[in-house]
Amino acid sequence: MIAANQTPRAPIEPAHHVGDAELMEYAVGASDEAVSLAVACHLALCRACRAQVRRLDAIGGALLESQAPSELDANALAQALARLDEQRRPEDAPRAPDPVAAPTGGALAGLDLPAPLRRRVAELPPTRWRYVAPGVRGIDLPVRSGEATAQLLCLKPGLAIPRHDHGALEVTLVLTGALRDAEGRLARGDVLFREPGERHGQKVEAGENCISLVVNAGSFVPLTWTGRLLRLIARP
Amino acid sequence: MLPAAPSRSLRQHAASGGGSGPRAKVALTVEGTSSDGDPGSERWILAIAEHGDRDAFARLFNWFAPRVKAQLALAGAGESAEELVQEVMLKVWRRAAQFDPARGSAATWIHAIARNALVSHRRAPQRAEQPSADVDLDADLGLDEAGVVGDRGPEEAALQMEWRRVLGSALKALPPEQYDVLRGAYFSGRTLRDVAEERKVSLGTVKTRARLALARLRGILEGRWER
Fold first, then answer.
1. Following DSSP, what letter does each residue of B78-126 receive, concatenated?
2. How many CB pairs under 8 A join A and B?
């Protein structure tokens, strides 16, 4: 049901982007791993933000060049030269890491996932959606560091998510279908950063399941809406 | 084919463009501007890629390794900085064939490799030493060394070249408090909240300064402001 008859999508550019501050934090390597994953997925789908990250990287390069040099250990270069022989010859190195194929089995078969997400999903055993709440199913994604967690959520068409608060940063990146939010319509590639204290409600558009990557930072996951639904509905 | 050496034109700009008017004072407060400069490190990387040129590697190392170490030290790498520099420069050797001068300068590429090394180090500092065989951990970071996915095409390449050409002098012409926030974020590799706490100003102030700095840099690039 979830991934039936995926047709190739025209490359429609997202309308909701990663903010300047969050993009800079990503580019300097300050974002949590799970937040980085959400940003990387947005970038895979958003040409404008990719261009901005390249500008940010270029700023990093210019700052590196203007940096006053530190003194290295006296034998640092000799040590590096000695270690070159252990390295693969540069011309034999692969030009780019092999792209990970789209999942062929399990719950996500046939889904057109952005590459950073495909790599995560590839680490999972054949996936199955687990029940989260009525109309809501989820898959937890592997995250090795930081406090933020990442999961895929599949929301039933027409589902209304009541107004709710966030105990910590929540990032939503839509992959299929669409959500209506106070911010407007969120469709594939659109990303929304919600800071703690921001209240909002959402409604899933009719017609198609809405699959999103949802990242929750901090340890207040039970205060997010999935947690509330769990508490209110799944464990009456 | 090599592009026109971007570092050379960048240096000319720093010498001629930033030298007059009230901003010259600002430029003088910028530390670490080298007079000898970087004589075409893109060429060295291509020489490594083409025939494993150890001499080119040594030159690249002498120019970049001390700067990478300075950045890593500022970012709190501490005693690991020296080993991380080795890791970064060896990765430059291994990955030289992946370097594409149309997508960014040598400095941008090496900055990205150093940033990724730092992120790896932070996320798993207890990790066993990386085997010398190339284990691609960067895929896990969600960060890419050449600026995520490459959009190619003449328009994109021209934009990148122009951006590189003006960036060095444009950075130095930023108001000091904006330049300071950029340096804080890039050299610490920390969130803007951390940068704000360090400087004892509000997060809103830091975000505003960062946004103004980026808008100004873009404005200069697109000819809306004079450099």
1. GGGHHHHHHHHHHHHHHHGGG--TTT--HHHHHHHHHHHHHHHHHH-TT
2. 238
pLDDT digits (tens, 9 = 90+) for A86-122: 776 655 555 555 566 767 667 888 888 998 888 888 8
Do the chains contact at A36 and B30, CB–CB below 8 Å?
Answer: no
Nearest CA in chain B to A25: B191
Q: Token pair of B75, please?
A: 């970012």
Element (DSSP H or E) covering residue B169: helix B154-172
Tokens standing for A193? 């950063």
> Nearest residue on chain B to A86, judged by CA atoms?
B132
Nearest Cα residue to B84 out of B105, B113, B63: B113
State the amino acid at position B168 in one-letter form: G
List, for residues A133-186, the tens digit of each pLDDT value.
889 999 999 888 888 899 999 999 999 887 776 678 889 999 999 999 888 999
H or E element in which residue B204 lies: helix B203-221
Q: Which residues of A touch B117 (CB under 8 A)?
A: none
| CA atoms of B87 and A185, how far apart (whole Å) | 45
Q: How far apart are CA A35 and CA B175, in angstroms?
A: 30
Q: Look up the pTM and report it.
A: 0.79
Instruction: With CB atoms and an 8 Å threshold, state whether A60 touches B65.
Output: no
- Contacts (Cβ under 8 Å, ≥6 apart) of B174: B26, B182, B213, B216, B217
Query: Which alpha helices (DSSP H) does chain A contain, by range?
Result: 20-27, 33-45, 47-66, 76-84, 115-122, 225-229
Q: Could you tell me if B157 and B102 are in contact, meaning their C-beta atoms sit under 8 angstroms apart?
A: yes
DSSP state of B22: T
Probe site for chain B from A13, A33, A50, A63 (most B CB atoms < 10 A): A63
Residue A178: how many other CB atoms lie within 10 Å: 19
Helix, strand, or coil (residue A176)? strand
A95, containing H or E segment: none
User: How many Cα neighbours within 13 Å face the side chain of A70?
Assistant: 17
A16: phi > 0 → left, psi -120 to 50 → alpha, else beta; which? Answer: beta
The answer to whether B115 and A10 have CB atoms below 8 angstroms apart is no
Q: Using alpha carbons only, how large is chain B's radius of gyration in Å?
A: 18
